[in-house]
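hiii so um. not sure if this is the right channel but i have a protein structure encoded as tokens and i wanna go backwards to a sequence. like what aa goes where. can anyone help
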């Protein structure tokens, strides 16, 4: 498999560690000098930059959390004056002030470089056309993928998100080989092609690079089959750089993504204590940027739950690999004392051929107890087989196959997740769909009450 920067992607582990140690020492001294937040944080711990000799000393440093970025809004975490910035991005700010991130020209070069590595790992090649359906604007996805694709030598179609009819038309007319979007929007496009009677063999796409929301092997399978592609996961977050922190290799697709750890040093820590965990154990993913200059971050608590391994991958790359995100500490649902992540439910659904992974979780509390309802689409072949409108309560009660399917789904979730749920089967195409952005699968009505 060709690589964008093979000399760095296959750097022997001792050389890679030496580079990380050097860059970490420089970064800690840099932030101590330029970012009052970090100077105060280190002073409070009685630390000097010289106390951090390499990655083995990272645990001595405090965590940086999203609240710290909001408390220093808008530019309090920046290490350079505004005049030295080349670009500013920000989160949506749905829970208050947005999280603001900045980039120097050098940072944007690094951004393009790691995205180019990711695209190459996902199957991208110079001269290929990328249909970029990530949103452009303050969100880092659109411009991030755009810059990396140009760096790799690809032709970019900056379609952005939404306008599904236009997306379908341009894919048919331009015949791109690769698409970048969220997994849920890839599913939406696959369904739209199917409605138009266009088979996967008639679609020009060969590869899909998907990210910005957690997804499962069931969703990968539906995208692969629906679009006729090989889909890989791209991981990133704005606070670290944006998309391109890690990516799967298209020939491996084991759910393990290579972290470009010459730029981003990963740790996994215990969600409760913050203590570092050994490779292979699931915990909270933490990143330290090693090369960013506008907004360097030490030990950023991502909230994402995963594990990492430093065993060499089949591709020959030597960088650490992270597993698919299992959920987020802040996305965790606590229902009757049970911790539940939507991805756990998706993992159960992939084992049931009569349903598809289009669903909505509805949480209510009419009395003293929480109730979880799973609104779940039946698969079209099963729907045609029963020949009934699933939304009709009378039909559901009358058709034993539907009653059996509801019981089957509920039993499997109970066995695997440990939670009793009410399963409501709904018609194909009626669950919420993505229109290009992140898909909200959970409606927590307890908060409204």
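sure thing!! here u go:
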């Amino acid at each position: 498999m060709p690589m964008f920067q093979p000399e760095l992607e296959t750097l022997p582990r001792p050389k890679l560690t030496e580079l990380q140690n050097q860059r970490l020492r420089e970064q800690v001294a840099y932030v101590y000098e330029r970012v009052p937040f970090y100077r105060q944080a280190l002073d409070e711990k009685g630390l000097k930059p010289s106390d951090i000799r390499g990655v083995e000393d990272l645990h001595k440093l405090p965590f940086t959390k999203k609240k710290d970025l909001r408390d220093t809004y808008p530019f309090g975490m920046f290490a350079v004056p505004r005049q030295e910035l080349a670009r500013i991005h920000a989160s949506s700010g749905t829970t208050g002030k947005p999280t603001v991130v900045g980039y120097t020209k050098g940072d944007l070069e690094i951004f393009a470089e790691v995205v180019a590595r990711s695209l190459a790992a996902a199957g991208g090649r110079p001269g290929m056309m990328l249909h970029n359906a990530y949103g452009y604007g303050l969100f880092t996805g659109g411009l991030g993928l755009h810059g990396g694709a140009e760096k790799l030598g690809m032709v970019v179609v900056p379609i952005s998100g939404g306008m599904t009819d236009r997306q379908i038309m341009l894919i048919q007319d331009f015949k791109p080989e690769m698409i970048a979007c969220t997994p849920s929007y890839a599913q939406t496009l696959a369904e739209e092609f199917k409605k138009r009677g266009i088979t996967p063999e008639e679609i020009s796409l060969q590869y899909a690079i998907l990210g910005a929301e957690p997804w499962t092997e069931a969703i990968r399978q539906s995208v692969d089959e629906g679009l006729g592609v090989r889909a890989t996961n791209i991981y990133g977050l704005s606070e670290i750089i944006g998309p391109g922190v890690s990516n799967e290799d298209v020939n491996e697709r084991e759910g393990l993504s290579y972290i470009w750890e010459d730029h981003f040093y990963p740790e996994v820590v215990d969600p409760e204590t913050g203590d570092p965990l050994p490779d292979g154990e699931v915990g909270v993913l933490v990143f330290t940027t090693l090369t960013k200059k506008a907004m360097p971050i030490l030990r950023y608590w991502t909230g994402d739950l995963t594990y990492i391994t430093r065993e060499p991958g089949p591709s020959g790359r030597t960088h650490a690999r992270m597993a698919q995100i299992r959920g987020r500490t802040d996305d965790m649902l606590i229902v009757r004392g049970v911790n539940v992540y939507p991805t756990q439910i998706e993992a159960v659904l992939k084992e049931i051929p009569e349903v598809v992974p289009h669903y909505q979780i509805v949480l209510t509390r009419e009395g003293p107890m929480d109730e979880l309802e799973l609104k779940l689409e039946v698969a079209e072949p099963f729907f045609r087989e029963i020949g009934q409108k699933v939304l009709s309560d009378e039909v559901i009660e009358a058709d034993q196959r539907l009653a059996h399917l509801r019981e089957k789904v509920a039993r499997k979730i109970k066995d695997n997740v440990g939670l009793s749920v009410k399963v409501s089967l709904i018609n194909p195409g009626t669950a919420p769909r993505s229109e290009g952005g992140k898909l909200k699968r959970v409606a927590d009505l307890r908060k409204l009450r």
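oh and The first helix runs from residue 6 to 9.
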